[in-house]
């Protein structure tokens, strides 16, 4: 069964020591009973065969759950009540419910009650329908899982009978056919394979598709028929039900003996039996006690910043609404009780017949209903609908499709779409995330020889004669593992194992003549150049993350009793027999390990040890047997026993295994570093390997200051915590001298790339902190806050030899200071980190799907982070913020017009709008433009996003200005202005009560005029807001406008509608009145002029980076002549056609890049002549080094197929510091920047005491920015010349990438 994010888990009482039952009154043939265990926290499951007749429903089943699985939330009889109860826990729904109740009070509501009932019923009904559909799907899955036929053996039956999986009970003996799914947690008793083992696929649990071998208990392996199983009387003492998939211990008691059982003997529910005709098992856990069900936990509740801001905004608007209502009621009470009412004699009776309190309460409820539309009820459905489709757009995006593995991106939540644009720190795993996790054996060091299997395959076999230990090393590769060989249909041997490192070692051994041919439970067969060797396996000491080693004890035909060991170099070397060690060889191995690590290889050491029969027998009796038979703390006892044996080792050699980087990882990391994102690599590899990988990933460059924190370097006389804290303080001081002294998380300076010239290489420009797990453990207890500050200074960190919990702790500490962290990984050891992070991303790798299933978003490759964050995150932020603010804006315009009318109506609470018009305002007239914003809006093309990484940084200032306090105030101000304009134009008409010459009007005519102006005004606002006009945007406005006028025409054509006739024939008056059309034009003209003027002023005086980029796009398009969708560039070589930018400006539903291709766009065709002003006139700001670089590049432009890398580094640094530019010049459009390049100080009065070069507050040199803009234009010109001189269009070059390394 698949995990569903909305699954509701029902509590199931786990049977602990105090809940165990000792009921002997059983006539069941096979009944599981839970007795008080001999140890606390232990469960005992028994099969009782007394030959009685089976009786169901007896007290013997008390306390034992059946195998029925329920993941659904509702039943048919409680859906309505439970769903309504849950829905009205939402503040917004509760608000509209109260509003509906107030509207039903007689004499209170100024509108029909249907005005408040219909929207609420629509919103709640749609949400209920969605919940019902999702729960119906869960019911279908539950029924399917509970109805699987299972063969069980019970009392009174001589053969297996078939029952539903829901009826399987603990203690049943089940028969599992091949390719069937295991219905419960079952202990393997026997199988029909010759080797008595079985294979299972655990993809439903951990996503791993490789087969795992399970073994039955040796004492029951011969029980393979119903006759022998029928009278079986056994019991199992085991762990209480728990969700741990990696451990399980128990003891099987049968025939008066105790037999240890472990996870290797247990088949978990959800596993699929493979390559085994039949398997027989004893049911241990059922239903809610199975490990699969206990792992079906709902994901952590994560909210995006926009969701939290929306909740705050709702509360603030509700508070503001209540203040307005109270003030209006107070004014109304003053006019009613304290002033002369001769002008309003018709309401004086009501005013004087009611007390002041009753009058105030009545008017409060009236205005509460009248102004309820301040809260846009349609917003909550619209935002959820749009977010769901945005997530679907992500899954459809072919940029995040891996054609090689046929994997597409998965969005497992839609609530964090816009949060993807707010990431400040990326915490990433290394193996399988930055690398391929496809291990290839690279090098081996043994007896003074280094064999390079990559350059010279089979080199180890060629050195067998020169190295006495090389043959033993190869034999160790083949034996010391848990890899299972098998033959495919073509007869080729395939190797499968839990560890990709072990598979690489076995393949390396086979490539050099040592083939693992067969593996049984107690022996392996290895084919060597001298012949086949049968090696007995006596004991396997499993790998553990604490020991970082695994060993096997074997009986070799020629060498006798041997311990074969492999593991991490530090762990193996620590356990060597120093007295017998060859120091020269040890020094050679250490040097080789360092060389392998510098090459980026994963390193391992191999060792062995001869054992005596007495030593082995004593160790097995005293340590191993008690450990493997223990029920509690078995892992700790096995660890202790293993450490006793893994001592006095003799070193055989060392290996290096290559794990290649995924494609475009360096480019992806450089993109985010240029965007001001901090990168943290959290890995279990050794320090040297991690550092080398970091260098290949562009995390560490030539001039990077590497700061190593190592607790092992602490002097013996100094406390470790104090020493580490001193090192951190010293490192902070060093990095502050290099720049970026502001604290982490400051919006003004966070993550700002250093603005140092690339030519200035005398000093490091950035820092990288390297820390291991032991040191991190000391830091966690003493100075984690200062370590966080250190990370802010370095902007890069490598955490080596860290545990999964340490990964999660690092993320937790960073987020506690308000930082948005993204955690990305591919294995089960990354799940804690992924779930702890604000945004969790899983890589669809080779280590199973636990990380994928635990994540919020899953992507096939690390490079897909760019489209996920920079494109979809940006667009989602833009869409959702505009959708939210526009929804409030349009409702505020309506509500403020109603408030303004109260001044004309004497604050009586009279509405000026018809009830049905009010209903349709949100649900019909203004529904489509917000949806168009939430689905299809974007500000810049993907090409510009890739080209300028700093655009991603610009989104966090705060929330890109999209939903900041300033933005909200601006929207609310526009609502006030537009409502004042609309109502102001209607005041003369309302005062004179005329709609044309000698024609009188009425309140409903005035209301229809105002509503027409409101609808036209808010639709015009949406048109001015749209930045990516498509036919969908145009259609949303046109259909909304036509829908409004069609409704008015039809509604006012009906004489009597539901007993009311006030609106009859209004369309005849309105559409034939010239004043209506004149006022409509005047209102729209004034709204548009005001909006355009303010926008123009803001973009000219106070532009942001995105404004400059959009203007650049616009100017570029203006300078292009197009012919049938192709760009024509005229030059000396004649007209040429090159690809246009259209492909990059289309919506995201089309493929922008070839599957698996580069996401970083090549340099595009240059603009046509005359687009940009003379480039050479701006050379004054270009340094000599930059000009020489350009000259050098000029000489390489002869061939159109040659690639060219461009250093745009410093243009993109310093936040592009657009805000800093304001202090240098009042105008910063591209046209004014051109003027700034010619006259850098024009329009900027500089104090004579200032330095000649205008250095801005945050470190941006205006002259340097001008130089970089000139450099861009010069490169543009050279490309243009290159295209002109080309006799034919240049072929596309996929790898012609823009370098942001020096930005």
The Rg value, from CA coordinates, equals: 37 Å
Portion in strands: 15-25%
Indicate the structural class.
alpha+beta
What is the tally of helical segments? 42
Can you summarize the main beta sheet? 9 strands, mixed
Low-pLDDT segments: 1-40, 48-62, 741-763, 1121-1303
Question: What's the end-to-end separation, in Å?
Answer: 49 Å
For the biggest β-sheet, the strand order reads: 16-35-34-33-17-29-32-31-30
Q: Level of helix content?
A: 40-55%
Shape: elongated
- Overall strand count: 40
Average pLDDT number:
76
Structure description:
The protein is α+β, with helices and mostly antiparallel strands. The protein has 42 helices and 40 strands. It has a nine-stranded mixed β-sheet, sandwiched between helices. Strands 19-18-28-27-26-25-24-23-22 form a nine-stranded antiparallel β-sheet, sandwiched between helices. A hairpin with a 7-residue loop joins strand 2 (149-153) and strand 3. Helix 12 crosses helix 13 (500-511) and helix 31 packs antiparallel against helix 35. The relative contact order is 0.07. The model is unreliable at 1-40, 48-62, 741-763 and 1121-1303 (pLDDT under 50).
Which characteristics define this entry?
9-stranded antiparallel beta sheet, 1303 residues, disordered C terminus, 9-stranded mixed beta sheet, 16% strand, alpha+beta, disordered N terminus
Write the layout of secondary structure elements.
Elements: E1 42-46, H1 79-87, H2 91-103, H3 114-146, E2 149-153, E3 161-164, E4 173-177, E5 185-191, E6 198-201, H4 203-206, E7 212-214, H5 226-230, E8 234-239, E9 249-254, E10 257-262, E11 266-267, E12 272-274, E13 278-285, H6 291-294, H7 305-338, H8 348-353, H9 356-370, H10 377-396, E14 401-402, E15 407-408, E16 410-411, E17 425-428, E18 435-446, E19 449-452, H11 459-462, H12 470-479, E20 484-487, E21 493-496, H13 500-511, E22 515-519, E23 523-528, E24 531-541, E25 549-556, E26 560-567, H14 569-574, H15 583-598, E27 602-610, H16 613-629, H17 634-645, E28 650-661, H18 665-674, E29 678-682, H19 687-696, E30 704-709, H20 720-738, E31 766-772, H21 773-782, H22 784-794, E32 796-800, H23 804-816, E33 821-825, H24 831-836, E34 839-843, H25 850-854, E35 857-859, H26 865-904, H27 915-925, H28 928-936, H29 942-947, H30 950-953, H31 965-992, E36 994-996, E37 999-1000, H32 1003-1025, H33 1031-1051, H34 1066-1071, H35 1074-1101, H36 1105-1118, E38 1122-1123, E39 1126-1131, E40 1134-1138, H37 1142-1145, H38 1184-1195, H39 1209-1212, H40 1218-1222, ...
Parallel strand pairs: 17-29, 17-33, 29-32, 30-31, 31-32, 33-34, 34-35
Antiparallel strand pairs: 1-8, 2-3, 2-4, 4-13, 5-11, 5-13, 6-7, 6-12, 8-9, 9-10, 14-15, 16-35, 18-19, 18-28, 20-21, 22-23, 23-24, 24-25, 25-26, 26-27, 27-28, 36-37, 38-39, 39-40
């Amino acid at each position: 069964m698949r995990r569903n994010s909305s699954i509701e888990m029902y509590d199931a009482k786990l049977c602990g020591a105090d809940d165990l039952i000792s009921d002997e009154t059983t006539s069941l043939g096979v009944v599981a009973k839970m007795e008080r265990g001999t140890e606390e926290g232990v469960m005992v499951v028994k099969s009782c065969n007394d030959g009685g007749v089976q009786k169901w429903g007896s007290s013997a089943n008390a306390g034992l759950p059946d195998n029925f699985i329920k993941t659904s939330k509702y039943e048919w009889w409680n859906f309505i009540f439970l769903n309504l109860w849950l829905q009205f826990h939402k503040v917004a729904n509760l608000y509209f419910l109260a509003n509906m109740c107030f509207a039903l009070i007689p004499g209170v509501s100024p509108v029909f009650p249907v005005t408040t009932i219909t929207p609420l019923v629509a919103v709640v009904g749609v949400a209920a329908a969605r919940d019902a559909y999702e729960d119906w799907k869960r019911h279908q899955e539950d029924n399917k899982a509970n109805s699987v036929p299972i063969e069980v053996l019970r009392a009174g039956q001589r053969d297996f009978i078939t029952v539903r999986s829901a009826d399987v009970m603990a203690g049943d003996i089940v028969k599992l056919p091949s390719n069937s799914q295991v219905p419960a947690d079952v202990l393997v008793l026997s199988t029909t394979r010759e080797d008595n083992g079985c294979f299972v696929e655990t993809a439903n649990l951990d996503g791993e598709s490789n087969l795992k071998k399970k073994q039955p208990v040796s004492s029951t392996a011969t029980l393979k028929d119903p006759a022998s199983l029928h009278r079986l009387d056994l019991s199992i003492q085991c762990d209480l039900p728990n969700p741990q998939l990696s451990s399980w211990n128990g003891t099987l008691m049968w025939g008066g003996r105790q037999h240890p059982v472990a996870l290797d003997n247990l088949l978990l529910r959800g596993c699929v039996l493979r390559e085994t005709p039949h398997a027989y098992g004893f049911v241990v856990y059922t239903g809610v006690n199975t490990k699969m069900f206990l792992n079906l936990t709902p994901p952590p509740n994560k909210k995006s910043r926009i969701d939290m801001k929306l909740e705050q905004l709702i509360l603030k608007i509700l508070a503001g609404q209540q203040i307005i209502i109270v003030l209006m009621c107070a004014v109304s009470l003053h006019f009613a009780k304290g002033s002369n009412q001769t002008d309003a004699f018709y309401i004086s009776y009501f005013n004087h017949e009611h007390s002041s309190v009753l009058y105030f309460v009545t008017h409060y409820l009236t205005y509460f209903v009248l102004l309820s539309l301040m809260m846009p009820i349609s917003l909550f459905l619209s935002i959820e609908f749009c977010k769901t489709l945005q997530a679907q757009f992500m899954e459809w995006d072919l940029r995040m499709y891996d054609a090689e593995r046929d994997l597409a991106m998965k969005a497992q939540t839609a609530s964090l779409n816009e949060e993807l644009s707010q990431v400040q720190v990326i915490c990433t795993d290394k193996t399988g995330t930055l690398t391929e996790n496809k291990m290839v054996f690279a090098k081996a060091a043994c007896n003074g020889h280094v064999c390079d299997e990559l350059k010279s395959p089979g080199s180890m076999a060629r050195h067998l004669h020169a190295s006495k230990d090389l043959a033993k090393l190869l034999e160790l590769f083949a034996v010391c593992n848990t890899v299972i060989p098998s033959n495919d249909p073509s007869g080729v041997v395939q190797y499968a194992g839990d560890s990709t490192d072990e598979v690489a070692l076995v393949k390396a051994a086979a490539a050099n003549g040592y083939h693992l041919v067969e593996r049984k439970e107690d022996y392996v067969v290895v084919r060597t150049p001298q012949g086949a060797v049968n090696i007995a396996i006596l004991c396997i000491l499993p790998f553990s993350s604490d020991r970082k080693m695994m060993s096997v004890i074997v009986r070799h035909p020629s060498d006798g009793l041997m311990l074969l060991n492999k593991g991490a170099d530090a762990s193996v070397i620590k356990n060597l027999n120093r007295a017998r060690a060859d120091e020269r060889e040890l020094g050679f191995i250490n040097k080789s390990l360092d060389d392998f690590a510098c090459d980026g290889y994963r390193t391992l050491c191999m060792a062995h040890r001869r054992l005596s029969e007495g030593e082995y027998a004593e160790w097995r009796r005293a340590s191993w047997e008690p450990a493997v038979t223990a029920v509690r703390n078995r892992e700790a006892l096995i660890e202790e026993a293993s450490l006793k044996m893994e001592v006095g080792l003799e070193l055989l050699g060392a290996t290096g295994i290559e794990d290649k980087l995924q494609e475009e990882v360096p480019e992806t990391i450089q993109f985010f570093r240029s965007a001001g994102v901090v990168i943290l690599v959290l890995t279990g590899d050794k320090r040297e390997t991690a550092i080398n990988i970091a260098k290949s990933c562009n995390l560490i460059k030539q001039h990077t200051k590497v700061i190593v924190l190592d607790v092992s370097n602490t002097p013996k006389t100094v406390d470790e915590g104090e020493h580490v804290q001193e090192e951190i303080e010293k490192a902070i001081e060093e990095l502050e001298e290099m720049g970026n002294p502001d604290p982490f998380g400051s919006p003004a300076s966070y993550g700002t790339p250093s603005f140092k010239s690339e030519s200035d290489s005398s000093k490091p420009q950035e820092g990288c902190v390297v820390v291991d797990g032991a040191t991190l453990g000391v830091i966690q207890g003493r100075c984690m806050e200062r370590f966080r500050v250190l990370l802010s200074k370095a902007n890069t960190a490598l955490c080596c030899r860290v545990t999964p919990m340490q990964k999660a702790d690092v993320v937790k500490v960073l987020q506690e200071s308000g930082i948005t962290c993204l955690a990305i990984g591919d294995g089960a050891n990354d799940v804690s980190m992924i779930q702890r992070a604000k945004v969790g991303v899983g890589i669809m790798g080779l280590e199973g799907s636990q990380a994928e299933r635990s994540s919020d978003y899953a992507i096939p490759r690390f490079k897909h982070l760019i489209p996920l964050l920079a494109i979809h995150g940006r667009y989602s932020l833009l869409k959702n913020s505009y959708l939210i603010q526009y929804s409030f804006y349009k409702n505020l315009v309506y509500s403020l017009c109603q408030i303004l009318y109260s001044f004309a109506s004497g604050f009586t609470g009279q509405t000026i709008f018809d009830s049905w018009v009010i209903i349709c305002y949100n649900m019909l007239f203004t529904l489509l433009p917000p949806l168009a914003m939430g689905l299809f809006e974007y500000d810049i093309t993907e090409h510009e996003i890739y080209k300028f990484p700093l655009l991603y940084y610009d989104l966090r200032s705060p929330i890109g200005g999209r939903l900041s306090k300033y933005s909200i105030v601006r929207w609310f101000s526009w609502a006030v202005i537009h409502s004042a304009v609309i109502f102001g134009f209607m005041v003369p008409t309302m005062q004179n009560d005329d709609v044309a010459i000698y024609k009188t009007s009425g309140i409903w005519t005035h209301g229809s005029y105002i509503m027409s102006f409101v609808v036209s005004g808010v639709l015009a606002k949406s048109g001015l807001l749209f930045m990516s006009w498509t036919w969908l945007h145009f259609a949303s406005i046109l259909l909304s406008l036509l829908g409004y006028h069609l409704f008015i025409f039809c509604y006012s054509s009906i004489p009597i509608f539901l007993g009311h006739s006030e609106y009859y024939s209004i369309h005849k008056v309105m559409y034939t009145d010239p004043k209506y059309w004149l006022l409509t034009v005047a209102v729209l003209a004034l709204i548009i002029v005001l909006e355009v003027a303010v926008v123009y002023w803001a973009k000219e005086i106070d532009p942001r980076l995105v404004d400059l980029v959009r203007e650049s796009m616009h100017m570029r398009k203006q300078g292009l002549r197009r012919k049938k969708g192709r760009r024509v560039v005229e030059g000396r070589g004649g007209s040429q056609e090159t690809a246009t930018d259209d492909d990059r400006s289309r919506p995201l539903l089309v493929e922008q890049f070839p599957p698996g291709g580069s996401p970083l766009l090549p340099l595009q065709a240059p603009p046509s002549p005359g687009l940009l002003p003379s480039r050479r006139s701006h050379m004054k700001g270009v340094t000599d080094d930059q000009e020489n670089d350009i000259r050098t590049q000029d000489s390489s432009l002869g061939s159109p197929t040659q690639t060219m890398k461009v250093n745009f580094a410093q243009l993109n640094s310093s936040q592009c510091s657009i805000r800093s530019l304001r202090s240098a010049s009042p105008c910063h459009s591209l046209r004014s920047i051109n003027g700034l390049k010619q006259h850098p100080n024009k329009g900027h009065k500089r104090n004579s005491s200032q330095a000649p070069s205008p250095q801005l507050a945050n470190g941006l040199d205006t002259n340097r920015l001008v130089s970089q803009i000139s450099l861009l234009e010069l490169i543009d010109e050279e490309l243009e010349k290159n295209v002109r001189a080309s006799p034919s269009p240049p072929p596309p070059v996929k790898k012609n990438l823009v370098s942001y390394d020096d930005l």
